[in-house]
């Protein structure tokens, strides 16, 4: 065989699959160390950012500050010889905006970035990677102007439903369990609070440098769902397996179309799932459920206070979860 002869396609594919398996081996302490460092940076940035999620804050400034914080903390972190940075650009999604609202600087008079208002339901997302191993964080807060009174009604129902849906998923996801069981449980929880899972959103398996490695756990089953080319999306059931990591993103929506998100990164490196600790409760300011883990680009900044504790259809901002 000539020295410059490329391997056959089956051989090349086998080599690529073997390399991918080694790169995503969750029993390797180095791999887990990189995931955990990404999670630590993610949670640290989220804590600082939430302190800026307040009425009057520009969503463009918040997004830019979030990305800047990620880059600063990555530069000072361990694993000096590997690439680190933004995995998922910071986004600040308000009220009925579900995901990925990440405006650039306020330099367009005709389309200025949204400025946060009292009583807004704000969902902050961001992501960090260390050598391609990514973790995302998602945090929902309500900008309650009266910290002495709990938030009530449909917004509190959505926040509470998302909180319990996330808690359920963290406990139920384990090797051998079917994704359909998680979906059914989430639907029942959402229904108990007069909410529904948000169509078009899903949790997914992640791998090194890959935020979507297949195995989509859809929050809502939509038989008519299509992709951007108009092709129907197959929402097939699957079983969770050992040596998998998942970006868990439960989204629920109230009857008033106010979506709420909670997220985390799940590792199935043992018979029981291990989750990265969520962001701890903020020490005062709007209402809040909690926390999460994912990967992607660069941008933004923000502030918030008070954590959410729910009793029935109210969320008390004065007590931590």
TrEMBL record:
Domain Peptidase M24: 34-193
Pfam families assigned: Peptidase_M24
InterPro entries: Creatinase/aminopeptidase-like, PA2G4/ARX1, Pept_M24
Segments of this protein annotated with the region Disordered: 278-321
Compositional bias of kind Basic residues: 298-310
GO BP: any one term: proteolysis
Alphabetized UniProt keyword annotations: Cytoplasm, Hydrolase, Metal-binding, Metalloprotease, Nucleus, Protease
Subcellular location: Cytoplasm; Nucleus
One Gene Ontology MF term: metal ion binding
Main location: cytoplasm
Any one GO cellular component localisation term in the record: nucleus
Record's function text: Probable metalloprotease involved in proper assembly of pre-ribosomal particles during the biogenesis of the 60S ribosomal subunit. Accompanies the pre-60S particles to the cytoplasm.
Stated family: Belongs to the peptidase M24 family.
Name listed for the protein in its UniProt record: Probable metalloprotease ARX1
Species, as recorded: Allomyces macrogynus (strain ATCC 38327) (Allomyces javanicus var. macrogynus)
